[in-house]
Amino acid sequence: MERVSAGPHHTTYKLGDIRVTSLRDGYVDMPVRRLRQPGDKPFGNDLPPLVPLFDGALRLSVNAFAVDDGHEITLIDTGSSNAWHPTMGFLPQALSEARIAIDRIRTVAFTHTHLDHIHGLVLADGGDGFPRLSRLLVPRAELDMFRSEARLRRFHDRAQPLDPGQRLSANIEAIAAPGHEIGHTAFRVASGGETLLVWGDLVHVPSLQFDRPEITWEFDADQEQARATRLRILGLAADNAWCVAGAHLDSPGVGWIFRTETAFRFEPL
């Protein structure tokens, strides 16, 4: 992968014959207790010193990713719009900065249905984020969760089920990655012999969870399954020399995974 443009809210890469853009929706500060050790044990004073804190909190970047095959654009996750913290909701500015015309975004696919991934369908002023949207893909196991979001009512009937192994296009394939949520899904994007794995919320705190992948997150629907999925996919990316892109890796959130003697290491691209 080669970086071709960048700004405060975006970074665009060339992947084979297509382009992938990391879009920064913003960030969210979360309490340290969200991190969980095996046995659902929260951290106290034993948090490793290499984990940076901001006024005592963990700072998580919030990223979405646009895949442009030259004909149309598939957007993976949409950020939170104004549905959560005021430090988020900058996806429209990121798209503008990256010179991505929203009319070219015809497919939106979700890694899962937590609010910081889906509410960008609706702009802060109540308008449609993607007025020419023709396909809205939601992990099948989470369709009911999506349809429970009152703010997104106009999209409830437009949602189509997304299954592992499903191809969204010639370049994009859905991969099962359950644990953080019941239908949590990653996307393998491939072109010209290069592969990028867009993995949603596989890792929340990159300063810790690559070296200690057994550490989970309070909001993981199934912590044991999330841990097993993380180990499996980290190994898959490292062993196949795939680039990875994470929703909560430090913006732009794209890099390589390498095995260490005991775990893994992330190297930003």
From TrEMBL:
| SUPFAM superfamilies linked | Metallo-hydrolase/oxidoreductase
Tell me which PANTHER family the record gives. Answer: QUORUM-QUENCHING LACTONASE YTNP-RELATED (PTHR42978:SF6), QUORUM-QUENCHING LACTONASE YTNP-RELATED-RELATED (PTHR42978)
Q: Does the keyword Hydrolase apply?
A: yes
What protein family does this chain belong to? Belongs to the metallo-beta-lactamase superfamily.
| Gene3D superfamilies linked to this entry | Ribonuclease Z/Hydroxyacylglutathione hydrolase-like
The name of this protein is MBL fold metallo-hydrolase
Q: Which residues form the Metallo-beta-lactamase domain?
A: 61-248
UniProt GO molecular function: hydrolase activity; metal ion binding
Any one Pfam family match given in the protein's UniProt record, by short name: Lactamase_B
- InterPro entries assigned: MBL_superfamily_lactonases, Metallo-B-lactamas, RibonucZ/Hydroxyglut_hydro
Query: Record keywords: Signal included?
Result: no
The record's keywords, sorted A to Z, are: Hydrolase, Metal-binding, Zinc
